[in-house]
Amino acid sequence: MAAPVWSVDPRTGKRRERVAVEATADAVDAAVRAAHAARGPLADRGRRAALLRRAADLLEADAGPVVADADAETALGVPRLTGELARTAYQLRSFADLVDEGAFLDVRIDHADPGLAPPRPDLRRYKIPLGVVAVYAASNFPLAFSVPGGDTASALAAGCPVVVKAHPDHPATSERCAALLRRAATETGLPADTVVLVHGFRAGLDLVRHPLVTAAGFTGSIRGGRALYDAAAARPHPIPFHGELGSLNPVVVTEAAAAERAEEIGTGLAGSMTLGTGQFCVKPGLVLVPDGPHGDRLLAALTAAAGTTGPGVMLDHRMRDAFLAGIRERAQLPGVQAPLRPVAEDGGHTVGAAVLTVDAARLAAPGPHDLLLEECFGPVTVLARCADEDEATALLARVPGTLSATLQLSTAESAGTDPAGRGARLLAAVTPLAGRVVVNGWPTGVAVAPAQHHGGPYPATTSTATSVGATAVERWLRPVAYQDTPPALLPPELRDANPLELPRRVDGRAEEPRGHRAGGPPAGEGTGP
Questions:
Q1: Is 177 an annotated catalytic residue?
Q2: Half-sphere exposure (Cβ direction) of 473: Cα atoms closer than 13 Å
Q3: Tens-digit pLDDT profile for residues 129-160
């Protein structure tokens, strides 16, 4: 008999309601096959743009119940979740605009040229959807990185049906959002099974191993993500696995920056590392701070600000226990100090922030202190006190791949007028580590924008792709080229007349379609709503 799935209140640890049952192997197979059958209708570019916009509308119309469910299951708070819902709706509409524009298809036409040596044949290339995509919802973003989130939105934009594996921390929210997406599909002329939801740990493994699943997107822990990544690679036909696994998000504070504004940096760091009870993917977990009086000022400001931050509820009790155990283990290492320790309060349901410090020299070589170079999920950061820039640079060389890296520079270093050229040197040092480099700001908060990149070298992610921004759609597409194909057999996207009004490159030159407009292809082409 299938195991029940319960919604649990992390503020009390008590069950709220029975939501669903865990999917059996047969149920996963049925879900994938139903999604696979939706590929044909979803090829209609106009309909899938309409689906994304209707999903955004329905999400906003049902905002009250969605946010209430999400808050009851995650304790992230109504203000934070209201903002996350707005971001999620914006993201859905952004991908609808992308579908309308059509540039993501990357249409390229090179006409035959017999005068070249050797002669060039007629070649026409564009990108097509991979097929069914498995999406693994995140614990810390029940909307923006879960059922209606960026992986789902970008996969639908690419023309790929989606099977979502719900996160066990917010099953009721997942069910509500999945129902809204399925309703949006039927209201725009698409099968409801364009989006399917399944629950259960075993279902996650069955899903990534299913022969009709062609790619996967994951946001979660290194342990869980690596298990799925290995399963995806071990299939008879391996598939792309785009996983976001773990990130330290180092911050480098220069001596000159600390001298200028130690208190401002310390207070800003406290706000960033405690945001969402420290449960953001880009929480700054390691901060390289100069030794000496200016670094001491920064540490004092950090501990004061973090210490006055109210205790918070973590996403579930397992994560809370792991956080507290992780702090204890780190604080017991030789030379590690804990000027601010996490206080477990409210009958064992909340935690306070923690700050740890260590001399950077202890991290110079592999050893037990390597634990400080691993992510500790929750409201904690480690300050590594650096004697000089060389020590900071040596430590950066040991930091694993990360989503973000942040530089706190002085006015002169930011302007490039520092005689030592320190700003440019540090920028060059952190760029190989991270997918996003922040200067004089904080990494928490990832804007949804065409130029955004949310990814990084392993273990931050398992691929070079981004999960936020317009180019996230590229994960679910593959290029195909047609050579010397008769015009009557070509897909409409590749015909000389450009009947779908797509931007493209023809014989090496960018070409904008005449009368290009938003809203998809012209009527009568068979791809409109």
A1: no
A2: 28
A3: 999 999 999 999 999 999 999 999 999 999 99
